[in-house]
Structure formats: C-alpha cells, structure tokens
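TL;DR need structure tokens for one chain.
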Amino acid sequence: MDRECAFCPNTADFSGEHIWSDWLNKVLPGKKRFAIKNDKREVVRSWISPELNWRTNVVCRTCNSGWMSKIESNHAKPAMLDLIQDKPSIPIDRSRAHSIALFAFKTAVVFDHLARKRPHFFERSARHEFRISQTIPINVAMWLTRYGPSARGEVNTAYHDGIPAPERSIEMYVCTYSVQSLVLQIVGHKVKGVLGFSPENEFSAIPFWPEISDGLFWPPFASLNTLPEFNAFSDRWQKGTATY
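>> reply
TL;DR here they are.
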C-alpha cells in the first residue's frame, strides 16, 4: 500500500524532496560527502556526489512543487542565504525568524517521516494545517547557532521518551540540521504533568521560535567548532531538568 504524503491525503506521484534544498548547489560548489548515521551516530552509509541530490520520497508531487517550493523561494533562500554564507552583522528580526521557522518545521516533518519503526511524532492534523495555512504547531520550539567548519552539511535526529511515570511524561522529537555555517534545531515536545524541561547544556544558541528577542544579529557570540560539539548540541535534550 502506498504511503500517505507527509502533508496531505495524496498517496500518488511521490516525488523526491531534497534533504538539502536544490538552490544550495549554487551556494556550495564542488563535491559533497553524504553520510547516514544510526542512533549511536555511527556511519552506516556514505557517498560522494557533485550535487546536493539526496532526496526522500515522503511528499507528493503536488506539495513538493507547490506550496513547499514557495517556502523555499519566498522564505528559506532570502532569509537563510546570508547566514549560510556567514556574512557579518545580519539582523535576525521577527520576519527573518518566521521565514526560517517555516523551512525548519517543513524539514523536521520530512525527517520524522523517514522513521519507519515508530508512529510519526507530529500529528496528521497539524501537518495538514501547516500545508493549508503555514501554521507551526504550538508544541514546537527552535534554536539557531553557528557551525565553524565550512562546506559541511549535517543532520541528526532523535526521539526521546523520558520520565515514564503514570501521570508524568516527556516525549520529544529533535531535528538538528546544518548547512555550512548555519545550524537549526527543531524540538517538538509533548508533556504530561510537567511544566517545563531544560536541556543539559544551553550552548550558545539563539531561540528564534516561537519568540525571539529584539536586536539580535548574526553571527552568535560563540560557535560549534567540531563534529563532536555538533553531536553534543544535537543530543543536549537526552538529559535535562524537568519542572513540575
């Protein structure tokens, strides 16, 4: 049986959604190295390609070439390009944050649908509403920071289901996505009997969704400078402090 599109009831004409957007090929010339890792961050497959051509078939052609394409051209590219290229003194205002958030949530849903051994974290109704109105669910928060090594693309995803008490639980889906200098972290959370949850390490990351402070500029004060630091940032929600 065909799988349903991540964002609509359509199950036909599945087309490949780029993991790294196609417009980035002009931004990042030269050969690219791709790697797929397991939950232990061990590489299970790697390859080299002259283009950013890694695709995944979890959306239909109508979504991919319609509203998703508009997010890329109208929001992602104009809002993210200067940050990816690490240009100095770029203001991160509410308009830019909103545009980045649209791209980030779309990307997190795509990666969530790559998981085949558990139910999708983001509810079907929320994903369909995002297609219709580009409304990001209220249980999603996002951060951004800078990655020092240039010309890299990394993605780490993780599902956390902690505090298994009868009336207290925290369930999270974390997608940490980088392209060249820009790192985005998207955290979906479902909590029961818990007021809040703080990560083990705050790092030097800027919260930009659902709220963002005024007067922020790129680049952040500090960066992630190595792959182990990037992995530690990705895994910072595995341990933390809950507020009851």
